[in-house]
Amino acid sequence: MREGYTIRQYCMERGTLVGITTSMSFLASMYGLNNIPVGHISNLLALLAWAIAIFSIRRWRLQVEPSLTFGHTWRMVLGIYFYAILLTAAVQYTYFAFLDHGRLAMQMEQLLAIPEYHQMLEQMFDSEDTQTIVQQVLTVFRIPAKATMQMLWMNTLLAFILTIPTTLLGLIGKKTMHNK
Q: What is the value of pTM for the model shown?
């Protein structure tokens, strides 16, 4: 680690790395809708992003601050995910605004045209609500800003859910002495 390296700088750097990996996972998932191997690569990249966050916390704790507490580690993980979410949102907006051209909404419509998926939705919701929900979802994914905001909220929720296991896994391991 560099001399004078702050936690904020480290979170920004590692959050950027997690964000790049998450963005690649998002793009692979968009193109993996029609290509199963690309979809699997998307899943592997999502797991890699999580692993990067875990090992980043472990690296900071083992090399810089061995007495890192749970609360301090949790805030650090939150910082990493915050920077990752911002970068991913920028990539998602770029995708929906310039690359998608309504492709995702069309694929969702095609998927919902399959009777099995439509029956599954009707089992989950009232049959009257199903059409309303489908139309709302399709409307959201046709407008780039709305699609990006929807993805931003989902990413934020997922980040909050992942902070606890990431923190716990980041705290595992042998502590070393801090060398200045």
A: 0.86
Q: Which of 88, 110, 92 is nearest to 146 (CA)?
A: 92
154 in the Ramachandran plot: left (φ > 0), alpha (ψ -120 to 50) or beta? alpha
Mean pLDDT along residues 70-90: 96
Q: Give the C-alpha separation, 42 to 32, whole Å.
A: 7
Residues 6+ apart with CB under 8 A from 17: 52, 56
Which sign does the torsion angle of CA 139, 141, 144, 149 carry?
A: positive
- 81-118 residues labelled b (16+ CB within 10 A) or e (exposed): bebbbebbbebbbebbeeebeebbbeebeeebeeeeeb
Where do the H-state alpha helices sit in 32-69?
Answer: 36-63
Report d(CA 74, CA 57) in Å as an integer: 10
pLDDT digits (tens, 9 = 90+) for 96-138: 999 998 888 888 888 777 888 878 877 877 666 777 877 888 8
Q: CB neighbours (10 Å) of residue 34?
A: 10
Q: 50: which 2 tokens?
A: 């999580």
